[in-house]
Amino acid sequence: MTAAGSRELILSRIRSAVAGAGEVEITRAYRTSPDPARATGLVELLAERVADYRAVVHVVDEGEAAATIAAALARRSATRLVVPEGLPSEWVPGEPVTDDPPLSAAELDGVDGVVTGCAVAIAETGTIVLDAGPGQGRRALTLVPDYHLCVVRAGQIVAGVPEAVGRLDPSRPLTWISGPSATSDIELNRVEGVHGPRTLEVVVVR
């Protein structure tokens, strides 16, 4: 029997088994943050969790953001940086590399890094989510370069995953980032930079 035939056989048996069964109400009582205790200290919690993933984290005031970004890039001697359209001009370093027309994978691999904003950040998991919106660009921009500097505004931080999902459009291309790209082999030898940037630097703007 073919794979398609086996699949249809299994589905037909399931349909027969549940035929006539009543509707079952599925309760989705996901924990959100009406509790004020969960809604406070999100900036500090996010910074702590992101650092746990071996990312570099800076927590700064609005007026310090541009200087912090410039200093971070200077420490890496990063000058050829991809900056997606829509990133605030004060965060844009020198003369950025634009993605119009779209850069090839080889061209993206040849730059010093990418600077982006984000759609939302999750404090409890230390996860940053990009949805290809303004200041974020297409997914390849943050997956191919070896260095990613991401700016997160305090208003984009939520406590948990349910709140984040509630803010996101599932039809958009979502990239969920929990620290630099890393994996390990069967002997638990950690290798970084396999599926994305080897270095993640996050500037959290209060």
UniProtKB/TrEMBL annotation:
<feature type="domain" description="LUD">
    <location>
        <begin position="110"/>
        <end position="205"/>
    </location>
</feature>
<dbReference type="InterPro" id="IPR003741">
    <property type="entry name" value="LUD_dom"/>
</dbReference>
<dbReference type="InterPro" id="IPR024185">
    <property type="entry name" value="FTHF_cligase-like_sf"/>
</dbReference>
<dbReference type="InterPro" id="IPR037171">
    <property type="entry name" value="NagB/RpiA_transferase-like"/>
</dbReference>
<protein>
    <submittedName>
        <fullName>Lactate utilization protein C</fullName>
    </submittedName>
</protein>
<dbReference type="Pfam" id="PF02589">
    <property type="entry name" value="LUD_dom"/>
</dbReference>
